[in-house]
Amino acid sequence: MRGRSVAEAPLIVSTNGASRWTLAGDLSLSSVSRVWARREEMFRALAPDTVVSIDLGDVTRTDSAGLALLIALLREARGRGVRLQFDTIPVQMRSLARVAGVSVLLGLDADPTPPPLADQRDVKPESPTGVSQ
After folding, report:
1. Please, which residues have CB within 8 angstroms of residue 95's CB and are 6 or more apart in sequence?
2. What's the pTM?
């Protein structure tokens, strides 16, 4: 990667057998569409009840689009009866997940039960003063 900035690092997607995927390089707005385009191919080989580990240890840069991709892959996997677990999540992505309130969903917090991905229409928003609207 000599001579390239971190932002220019290519995204590498590899499947090391059906149950281990690796993402490496720049996982951001400029690259997530490549992963999304390959999702059908990546999920096709999986039987229901398969657990897939996604190694993120070589992700060099990420942004909210990278985080959104992981959440979309979780939703896709659930729809297919597959379970995803994320390994070696970079600090930058952990921080984004905490700020966005999705760290439990990605398996970063102690609660092993991820919240539902369904729309929570029954929740009433609170105003900045703490009074329900």
Report:
1. none
2. 0.71
